[in-house]
């Protein structure tokens, strides 16, 4: 892709031909005017651009060879040259919320943010009228097109893959404009109120089902432990007596007004016979 970008840039800068006889005459007159009104003419001929800026100079409607100028100081000829400043810093675009119909027929509102920068000032000025507005409109259209092929569950869970797919599409589309899309982020996905309530009810039902399963498993484990303890105590009458005394002790500790003393199982054996 970088090779294509260099190729586009060279083509846009290499189309500068001769300015013709009239152009040469006008250029000579411009130099004469600069010399006559020196040093006042310096205010019109000297321009400065910042470190993060570049200047694309047009002389009689043609881009000067050598590409954009800057950073620093450069000279222009009055009445012949026009220049446009281009900011090379990374800028962010907020994509307005888009009403999107997903693949499973659910309407969602999605907004995103795009981070991009200009890597070729000449292409961004000559190949597109307004690079910022065009990139913003293209991002909104790409967001609708990409999310229209996804299910609602994919939009909620696979934001990273969707952002990477959007970045790839936008980067290829804005390459002829001299713009590099560095990053795409999905900011928010807003669902309809009815769908939110349905999802909340579904999640609550799933939690209740899991709670019931856990309670049943706990009861099963407790019953197994109780059966094992009963089998062990059945093998030792002394253990049963100790358990009986322990129960009496716990009942007495509760300060109840009425205490029920259960009959020992040994007293009932005679009546059973």
TrEMBL record:
Keywords assigned by UniProt, alphabetized: Membrane, Transmembrane, Transmembrane helix
Keyword match Phosphoprotein: no
Top-rank taxon, per record: Eukaryota
Record SUPFAM superfamilies: Band 7/SPFH domain
Record's subcellular location: Membrane
Any one GO CC term of the record: plasma membrane
Domain Band: 44-203
Membrane-spanning parts: 17-38
Family membership: Belongs to the band 7/mec-2 family.
Record's protein name: STOM
Source species: Mytilus coruscus
Lineage summary: Eukaryota, Metazoa, Spiralia, Lophotrochozoa, Mollusca
